[in-house]
Design goal:
The protein has 15 helices and 14 strands. By secondary structure, the chain is an alpha/beta fold. A hairpin with a 3-residue loop joins strand 12 and strand 13. Helix 6 packs parallel to helix 9.
Amino acid sequence: MTDQHRVDTLGAYGNPHVRTPNLDRLAAEGTRFDRCYTPTAICTPARASLLTGAAPFRHKLLANYERNVGYLEDLADDQFTFAGQLGAEGYRLGLMGKWHGGVRRTAADYGFEGPDLAGWHNPVDHPDYLAYLAEHGLPPYRITDPVRGTTPNGSPGNLLAARLHQPVEATFEYYLATRTIEMLRRWVADGVGTSPGGAGEGAATGSGAGSGDGAERPFFLATHFFGPHLPYILPDAYYDLYDPALVELPASVGETFEAKPPVQSNYSKLWAFDTMPLEESRKLIAVYWGYVTLIDEQIGRILDAVRELGLEEHTAVFFTADHGEFTGSHRLHDKGPAMYEDIYRIPGLLKVPGGPGGQVRDEFVSLTDCTATILDLAGSDTAPAVDSRSLVPLATGERPEWDQHHLAEFHGHHFPYPQRMLRTPRHKLVVNPESHNELYDLTTDPDELHNRYDHPELRDVRAELTRTLYRLLRERGDNFFHWMTPMYDVETDYDTTLSAFENEPAGDPAPERTRQEHA
């Protein structure tokens, strides 16, 4: 699993320049989900949805703790997780890399082996990383040439990129892959994942699970890279790997924010996009590409180890990300309260033993569906992942009935900011209670530059999408629908004011006195 990873950086998804041979091979040997989306484009809530199989409004972990403004910071103690289920069924669990799933409870509290790597970016001061450098005689972390813009008050903006003065073997990404391989080798030596015939079983790197006959103990092993989340801090060999001349700037760098929620323009100022020349943006994208290639190489090392240990034929492999990254699209960086494809569409690659290779599916699937997929692969008969559906039937070539939409939500980052999104094969509706709603035609406007919510020719489309979104929110129990009830032309069958006390009880001789006495 990667963090903040644009889907258009992978060769398997059509990028002609970025070298991602290992992920491309995974796609060629398994299934590529072309319409894979995150339930919410922010780290902790998305990762909690993967862990629980529940939508963010349901698991209630709605913001990253670093900038939390009052939301919960940990899952409820009785919250279902796939880790708890697999642990109860005898699986050995490992998580090497980014946790970001709460502050009071760490990955170990959910049964995962591995160092506690907290925070949102590579924790280069972590004792285990420092020990790794010492073990291999590698130089310490040091960066120069920081790239940043200027914020509205004149202070330096967030760090976007820098040069790392370490060899590739000292990078945090290389360290994570090395520790993953070491853990896998230890497990195999202990008999985990091995059967009397020498085959392995279980779940290997990324996020997946597997099962088989005769294994002594199955396993689930996840490697969660902190990148390519900004800042892009890379050795020169990767920082300069791609010529910026190869980069075609996205059309949305011409964003005007006309008829868009003002918060988007404010976020553009926060990320200081306009304080840097466009050529700097082009270079930043090229550096981001280098980061993706660095990570792909580490994934290749892990997959090679899976093969060398004889586990490949009985191990399912899943690759995905928590959400995307703007990298200058819409004059933005990072992510935030703007529900564009850049940050909501994510990579999704799944290789299931015995499944067809080179398959491309166009059903709408979600990061949340990984939960039910893991449980399905593990043969678990318990599946209380209420917002999750197994992708195994799709990965094995079946044609089940499937929803032709994706429902997403956002609750805020630097401040509370509720949004709901409905994505269909052609259109996208975003409801923003504080300002302008958004409606995009992804066929005629794939860059989402033109908000057509108020355009009369899309009146019927808008009405249909609004009613569908409203119905879906009510069906899943998301109380955001209460805002929509009085604001839009939707059908309802309940007391929309939630004011039943206004109705006088039949036969009450003195309702006013009763209310006054109660008051």
